[in-house]
């Protein structure tokens, strides 16, 4: 296909003529044949990129590269012809570009200013030309997103957790315990993927959450946010093997029945002060008083807690009798 302006031989070199023409892409592209074009390329800022062409026509004698979508002298990077041995640099040559004889354009240390449309002109014999275009995408490294949760210590089946990923990137993925989060029915992502709502939260949701953002050439993960999900503490049950006991004679065993790991003991609504005659089992669930003393009479409770709630058992009242009162043998 002949480029219309190419035949007008004004200017120093023939191609200066068609430099003035505005490039109307669709004008030159036969829709059916495999067209000569620049392979779309994505790069990270600072990388060296090679813009390649495909479907190059046969019999090429030189190439002209432009940065921008207008083929004028202002946008010229370089012209190379191996029929004439010429290598001409244009205003868009910045010292980082190299046009090779295979038609590729190498740009070292690309910046976001380099992104956009490029045009390559293949110069064929008899002043014929073929024009290809393509796009260079240049991305900055995805910056680290920030993940924030409305609350990280919550109660199962009661609370709603909203997590928000703060980022400028468009592509956002969510990670749970370092693998891709599988959305449950209780979970909802906002349309822009930036907000995850868990309503209501369940025990199985406990763990580490991250958001991972990416662009076509880099990705970055937020610091993890750990979600703690607690049951509402159920009321423990307290039982004594005998609640009416005799001073100095009897012993009593009081047991707290609970699922929680953290149990505290109360005596008359205050924290129990362990005396020599009192022993707590290692799991804190059993209190043994041996022997019973007068001052042990009163109300006992156990109290369960997790990081967000606590519940006390109903009290068990210990009635301590004098030795004399209950031992008829001593009365005689
Ligand atoms: C070439 O095109 C660019 C973009 O349209 C324009 O800014 C520039 O002035 C043009 N230069 C010439 C010499 O026409
Ligand atoms: C790459 O370009 C940046 C500016 O865009 C410059 O600061 C840096 O020094 C360059 N690096 C090299 C290796 O040329
Ligand atoms: C987080 O949830 C817990 C349990 O529902 C609640 O007690 C606490 O006040 C909440 N914290 C914030 C900051 O909303
Ligand atoms: C996620 O990790 C937490 C520890 O951070 C662990 O307790 C929880 O069982 C894990 N959950 C799943 C489903 O792997
Ligand atoms: C507890 O022991 C006393 C004797 O010390 C006895 O009189 C009382 O019946 C016992 N109570 C129970 C519930 O076993
Ligand atoms: C309660 O337990 C203590 C300590 O094991 C024991 O001495 C006492 O006989 C028990 N009382 C009853 C009524 O079983």
From TrEMBL:
SMART domains membership: IG (SM00409), IGc2 (SM00408)
Segments passing through the bilayer: 12-30
Any one Gene Ontology molecular-function term assigned to this protein's record: protein tyrosine kinase binding
Positions of the Ig-like domain: 141-228, 236-319
UniProt record, GO biological process: regulation of immune system process; signal transduction
CC terms in the record's Gene Ontology section: cell surface; plasma membrane
Transport keyword on record: no
Alphabetical UniProt keywords: Glycoprotein, Immunoglobulin domain, Membrane, Signal, Transmembrane, Transmembrane helix
Biased composition (Polar residues): 302-313
PROSITE patterns: IG_LIKE
Stretch list, region Disordered: 298-332
Alphabetical list of InterPro entries matching this protein: CEA_cell_adhesion, Ig-like_dom, Ig-like_dom_sf, Ig-like_fold, Ig_sub, Ig_sub2, Ig_V-set
Family note: Belongs to the immunoglobulin superfamily. CEA family.
Protein name: Ig-like domain-containing protein
């Amino acid at each position: 296909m002949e480029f219309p302006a190419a035949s007008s031989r004004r200017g120093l070199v023939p191609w200066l003529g068609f430099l003035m023409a505005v490039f109307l892409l669709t004008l030159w592209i036969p829709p059916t044949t495999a067209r000569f074009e620049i392979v779309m390329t994505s790069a990270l800022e600072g990388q060296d990129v090679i813009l390649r062409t495909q479907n190059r026509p046969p019999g090429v004698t030189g190439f002209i590269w432009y940065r921008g979508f207008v083929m004028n002298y202002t946008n010229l990077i370089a012209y190379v012809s191996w029929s004439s041995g010429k290598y001409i640099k244009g205003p868009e040559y910045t010292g980082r570009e190299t046009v090779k004889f295979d038609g590729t354009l190498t740009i070292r240390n690309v910046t976001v200013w380099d992104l956009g449309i490029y045009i390559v002109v293949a110069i064929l014999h008899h002043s014929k030309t073929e024009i290809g275009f393509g796009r260079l995408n240049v991305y900055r490294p995805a910056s680290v997103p920030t993940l924030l949760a409305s609350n990280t210590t919550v109660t199962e089946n009661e609370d709603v957790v909203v997590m928000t990923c703060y980022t400028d990137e468009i592509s956002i993925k969510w990670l749970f315990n370092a693998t891709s989060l599988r959305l449950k029915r209780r979970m909802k992502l906002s349309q822009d993927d930036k907000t995850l709502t868990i309503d209501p939260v369940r025990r199985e949701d406990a763990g580490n959450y991250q958001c991972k953002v990416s662009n076509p050439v880099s990705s970055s993960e937020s610091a993890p946010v750990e979600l703690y999900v607690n049951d509402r503490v159920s009321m423990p049950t307290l039982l004594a093997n005998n609640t009416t006991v005799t001073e100095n004679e009897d012993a009593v065993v009081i047991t707290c029945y609970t699922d929680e790991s953290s149990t505290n003991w109360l005596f008359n609504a205050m924290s129990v002060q362990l005396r020599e005659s009192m022993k707590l089992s290692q799991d804190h669930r059993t209190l043994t008083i041996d022997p019973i003393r007068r001052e042990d009479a009163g109300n006992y409770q156990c109290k369960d807690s997790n990081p967000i709630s606590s519940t006390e058992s109903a009290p068990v009242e210990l009635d301590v009798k004098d030795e004399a009162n209950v031992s008829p043998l001593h009365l005689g």
